[in-house]
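Entry 14. Ran structure prediction on the chain below.
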Amino acid sequence: MRWRGDSDDTAGVPVDLSPLLVRSDQAAIIVSGLFAYPTGFAFSLEAISRLNPAPSPLGFLRPGIAGRDGSSGGELRFGIGFSDGSKALSRRNSMPSAERAVRRLHPRGGGGGGRKWSQEFWCEPLPPAGLMAFVFEWRDFAVPQTSIEVDASAVLEAASQATPLWPDDVDLPEDGEALGRGAGTRWRSSSYGTMRS
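Output, structure tokens:
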């Protein structure tokens, strides 16, 4: 049995890290709300323009490759580097195939408008021990490439405390079926929060 994502049946544990802040005279980027689970971690990324209205769109996770499809090439680039040399990137198609991330960084729910935009992310698997670097670049808003290093032990410690809410249910098959759970029946969802044997 292995966990797949931040299961709806798992209590994630807050990671003991202060919010990460990068800013210029035009905008700020904040990473906060880290929660750890048995196979990965979740967090929120916020982009805030100093000016109202913002000088260019804050919907920074537009599809396509930077510099193509009408994009300026100055959109927000965000990724995480790990102590084993692996990377997780928010724009997987923006790098040559030989440099693509071997880890997964999934954009999830997000939205906003005006001066502020937010995006949730799920990263898997858990980081190796050592330092992990959150790297940002947003040329449209005068944010040069900036790296903030944090100790992955905080994520690993929190993940070790994440537990299933109903231990008797951990052997249920994966999603897509109606399954007996205790005295009732539950429909499995197709979100990241599923378990897979």
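Residues 167-196 form one domain. Will compare against last week's run tomorrow.
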